[in-house]
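Predict fold of Lipid A biosynthesis acyltransferase; 316 aa.
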Amino acid sequence: MDRPRFRASFLHPRFWLLWLGLGLLWLLVQLPYRVQLVLGRMVGAIMYRGARSRRHIARRNLQLCFPELSDVRREALLKENFASTGIALFEMAMSWWWPRARLQRLAHIEGLEHLQRAQADGQGVILMALHFTTLEIGAALLGQRHTIDGMYREHKNALFDFIQRRGRERHNLDASAIEREDVRAMLKALRAGRAIWYAPDQDYGRKQSLFVPWFGINAATVTATTKFARLGRAQVVPYTQVRLADGSGYRMVIHAPLADFPGESEEADCRRINEWIEDAVRQHPEQYLWAHRRFKTRPEGEPNLYRKLPKKPLSL
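Predicted 3D structure, encoded as C-alpha cells:
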C-alpha cells in the first residue's frame, strides 16, 4: 500500500471533534509514563462502568475460560482487564507520537536472534502475535529493532486511518501494510523473506475455520496459519508482549520457531496453536482482549454463548 498522505479534506468541520480529541490525547501523553499508567487505569474504570455491552462480553468470556475462579476473583480480574484496556489508549498514543529514543527506553526484547537468523537465511516469518491490550505499543517497540510488515484493515474514518497508519509506519520505514484480504501480497512478502505480524486468535467465522478446543471450548480457529506457512515457505515464530508490573516498560519475547510446522493436518496445527495461545493468555489474563466474542461462531446445533443483555429501563 502507498504511504498515507495528508489531504485538505481532513480540515473539514466534520473532523474537528476528532482533531480536538487527538490534540487532547497528544497533550496527555507528554506526561511522565507512570502518570499515564494512572490515567489509563482511571479511563478503564470509566469504561467498566459505561461500556455495558463490552463488560458483558468480557465477563462472559472469563466465566467460560476460568470456571474454577470464584465470582469475586473473576470480577476483580474483569476490572483489572478494563484498567489494562484504558492504559492501552495511552500506549497507542505513545507509540504514535513519542520520540523514538524515549519510547525505546521502555523496551525489553528477548529472542531477536530468531528473526535475524531467518532474515539472514532469506526465509519468511509469520510473527504469530496475540490480541493483548499491549498490541499497539509492542508492535511499535519491536518495529524499531526489526522490519515487520503488518496485516491491515482500513479504518472507516479517513482522518483516524491517516493518523493511525502514519503513527505505525514511522517505526518501520521500509515496511509494508498488507490488506487483510490480499493473500497474494502476503505470500509474495513471505517468499521474499519478510516478517509479517499475524494474529490467529480471534473468531473470523466459519468459512476458513475448524472447531478445536480453546480453554476447553470448541472455538472457530482459522486454518490460514497453516496455509500461509506452507505456501509462503515460512517459519511460524510466536511473539508475546506484556506490560511489566513494576512500571519499567514492556517485555517482548520472540519465541523459537514452531518445529515441524505445518504438521500432519490443519486440525493438528490449529490445536497446537490454540494450546500455545491459551498458555500465553493464562500467564497474563488481565492483559488479554476479552471484550472480543471469541466463541461467537458455534458448531452446528450448539447454542449462542453470549446472551443478549436486557435493555436498560428509561429513567423518568
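The chain is about 45% helix and 15% strand.
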